[in-house]
Amino acid sequence: MCDTLCARGSTKTVFAKNSDRPVSEVQLVGAHPRRPSRGTVRTQYLELADTGAAATVLARPTWLWGAEHGVNEHGVAIGNELVFTVVDPHRQPEALIGMDLVRLGLERGRTADEALEAMTSLLDRYGQGGVADASSQSPYFSSFLIADGRSGWVLETAGNVWAAKPTSAAAAISNRLSLRTDWTIGATSLAPGEDFDRWRDPKTPTSLADVRLAAGRRFLAAYDPDRGAPSAMAAHLRDHGHGPWGAPGAGDVAQPPPPADAGDPDCFTVCWHLRGYQATTSSMIAALPATAGAPVQAWAAPGSPCVSVYLPLLLSGEEAVLPEVLGDEAVWHRLAVLRSRVEGPEGADAIADVRSVLDPIEAELWEEAATLPGEPSRWRPVAATWSRRVAEAVESLSASG
Fold first, then answer.
1. Is there a contact between 307 and 27 (Cβ–Cβ < 8 Å)?
2. Considering the domain boundaries, does residue 138 fall inside one?
3. Sign of the CA dihedral 356, 357, 361, 364?
4. Rounded mean pLDDT of 9-19?
5. What domain count does the chain have?
6. Count of Cβ atoms closer than 10 Å to residue 57 Cβ
7. Residue pair 170/5 in contact by the 8 Å Cβ criterion
8. Tens digits of per-residue pLDDT, 38-67?
9. How far apart (Å, rounded) are the C-alpha atoms in residues 318 and 64?
């Protein structure tokens, strides 16, 4: 389960995603340099002709070639969602999976339009298929939110069939098909004006997505990306069902996750905690500049955002600077310990203890990043101190209690 959203203003688009995956699946964030075109590139299951790659920062489960979400040097960001359709993914041969398409779109797209063209061309040629969740050996199809600083697309799929619609100033997607007859381009197999909802599996309830999708749309209705700080987006991504942390009516900032009754829609929160099954295991926010070629700033949180820190990172041209702690598997596992603690019977006290340590650190990191120009040489030494501070704090917290 996942949630992806974006808000476009006059100077930038703010993009964000919570990646919800199996609780034991490690997901790390890393920088991938530009790659010249060469013979072939190996995706999860296929060998493709390689057209080269832009520099990217990607959040990837460690066993996957593809990415859950990411951003490239051109200021394009993409995230994907599992969707339930009438096409049975178990009957499809190994082909491309949603995470392959996220990475390929970011590697090949200088704009949201180009990323969409790359992804749909690959869908038309190769289709989708193959295990995408190793813990349950499950295949599935995906929807996507593709954004840059000036435009964006919602792309939805059912096997080899796809449809896409340009985003308005704000867009949110979750784990359900949402396009109807409002798509503007689609696979050649679609009839003009066809209702894409016919591809939705009517046997799968949409409630697990509807609650989170409604929360995202409520947040976007009040969010101005030109004036609202990205920290407001972080507050939304930490929502445990009471609204963005610190928002009016949300109560205390650090709300523990709700009980784990999978039959209760109230447990389907933006910061996802379905005990023993799935949780938010990585989160990212990116400010995509409207000016082509401008540096891209982003913030990535390893593990569940409610027990983590959004660390600043920079993409300037082909150079990416990100704190090494984002790729530290030991830190990811320590954050999983903290997530388990706040899911327990003492969740309210546990999350208050965690945030009392991590909130001041996150505020300091964001303040320091705000003073830095968009020059990698100025970011590198500071990013190293961010890694040390966060790693030490997480280690201390996970060892206590």
1. no
2. yes
3. positive
4. 97
5. 1
6. 28
7. yes
8. 899 999 999 999 999 999 999 999 999 999
9. 23
- Report how far residue 91's alpha carbon sits from residue 390's, in angstroms, rounded to the nearest whole number: 44
147 has which bridge partners? 77, 152
Segment 72-100 shows an average pLDDT of 97
pLDDT band for position 260 (cuts 50, 70, 90): confident
Is residue 368 domain-resident?
no
Distance (Å, whole) CA 236 – CA 244 = 4
Residue 165 belongs to some domain of the structure: yes
Residue 347 lies in a domain: no
Site of tokens 């070629």: 293
- Are 111 and 62 in contact by the 8 Å Cβ rule? The answer is no
- On the question of pLDDT at 370 being above 90, the answer is yes
Burial label, 349 (beta-carbon count in 10 A; 0-12, 13-18, 19+): middle
Give me the phi and psi of 297, to 5 degrees please: -110, 140
Domain that holds residue 125: 2-289+298-305
Q: CA-CA distance, 150 to 378, in Å (whole number)?
A: 28
pLDDT of residue 250: 56
> Residue 164: which CATH number?
3.60.60.10
What's this model's pTM, rounded to 2 decimal places? Answer: 0.97
- Say if residue 158's pLDDT is above 60: yes
Report the sign of the C-alpha dihedral through residues 20, 25, 29, 35, in that order.
negative
Burial group, residue 389, by CB count within 10 angstroms (0-12, 13-18, 19+): middle
Q: Please give the average per-residue pLDDT across 339-346, as a whole number.
A: 94
The neighbouring-strand residues paired with 278 are 22, 274
